[in-house]
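Appendix C reproduces, verbatim, an entry submitted by the partner laboratory led by Prof. M.T., so that reviewers can inspect both the input and the predicted structure.
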Amino acid sequence: MADSILSETSQHVVIEVWTDLGCPWCYVGKHRLREAIADRPDSDRFVLRLRSFELNPGAPKTPETIESAFIRSHGGDAQIVVQAERRIQALAQSEGLAFSVDRLNANTFDFHRVFQYAQEQGVGVEFFSLVQDRFFAGELNPFAPDALAAAGAEVGLSEGRVREVLAGDEYAADVRADIEEGQRLGVRGVPFAVFDRRLAASGAQSVDGYARALAQTVTDASAGAA
């Protein structure tokens, strides 16, 4: 459901999405939002900005299977997460999205630091989307520095610079700033989309749900400009 968030009027409609790399609903929601934008005649009016958020900041840096991560965090029967993965796999595939259930799980903070570097270079959305799409397709291990550096090069980043960022702690403050700002806006889970600082939508909406949010935001922006 959309919640009111005050904003100043702007010519472009900025859509900010707090998101995490390994979140299946973030992956599905991103594609639904892009479809909703592409379906509008004024699609070039919308500017998508991704913002960092960690769903599981306590996850280890060493990659583990999704089942192992579930047992470590929750205990019990790993079949619960396996069944959930199969359900979202079927849903994603019905929407034309590749979805591997054999993905690895690990701490995403270092990925977010590289993403912040990509943001600085003007290719944040392209970098994030490329890595996430290939990760869910089972084609890329985002926890391997060489793979992440190669992905960065595909969107115009320096491979050497990506490795430098991964080897240090640069952009950590930027990641934390995104997370803290999201929490101030009410983000408790992702995806969390904020439309022009006017409306917020928590969770992966349907294409129609995102379309309604876009239409409402444009209406509110026009009313504010009048």
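The chain has one domain: 2-225. Additional entries are available on request from the coordinating office.
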